[in-house]
Amino acid sequence: AGKVTQNNVPVPMSILARLNLDSQGISVAKAYAETGVGLDASKLRDIFAAKKAAGGEVKVAMTFPGGTHDLWIRYWLAAGGIDPDKDVSTIVVPPPQMVANMKVGNMDAFCVGEPWNEQLVNQDIGFTACTTGELWKGHPEKALGLRSDWVEQNPIAAKALLMAVMEAQMWADSMDNKDEMSDILGKRQWFNVPPKDVAGRLKGTINYGNGRVVENSGLEMKFWKDHASYPFKSHDAWFLTENVRWGKFAPDTDIKALVDKVNREDIWREAAKELGVAAADIPSSASRGPETFFDGKVFDPDNPQAYLDSLAIKASA
Q: What is the pTM of this model?
């Protein structure tokens, strides 16, 4: 759509796979621990308002405007009655710099993937209010996107690349491989963190840093199970709808047409067949159907407008 490219020149992209579900985190500075804030962000509403009224700035960090972390923290704030465009300042901070910036007081809250939430807790700088799987259990996250012209010009290579990613997802999903995966990711050329900053949440053990520890949470990142790899068109529709909500896309955006243009779930199905993936692991539909969020809101991919109409806080409100 050309929304994030230089001079707004569209670079047609194709989505070939989803890479994972769940396991991003929304973390808050230690100064707010006594509010008891967790999944309900409304506990921050008055204290944020007071800070702003006193001339201070409430800074909430994410990794890219319109990206997944931006959408998760906006949803969380808005569900608690905090307008992310009016009541706080949203700032962009690269993931590896989140903890350091919170340590020196440059932000009040942030949304990012692991291991940065776990590292924040391990360094006793802040705590995790919630994981994103608590906002929307089994939510989609990252995607494998390739330039559409390259996919069309190199169909065999594109499928081979996708199959390699799918096999890696199967490996990463096994609990037997989590320790080795943590060791790999902890190395200097990757996250450059102690493996313990990676392993816990990768296995589903969440130390929120506020006295709450949950083992076997079921909120660990899924790479293959629960159809994690399949690029549901209904999930792409939610991402677009949510960006309409916040004014990144026009209200008259043809969501279905745009999803159909970029989503190549047909290639995923071909790759799955060649890999011998069991029929039970191949979704029968490109839609996962209506999705329900923690606050009771429902997104029906066949009626995005009804979802938008149900939301009290949005750019157009």
A: 0.96
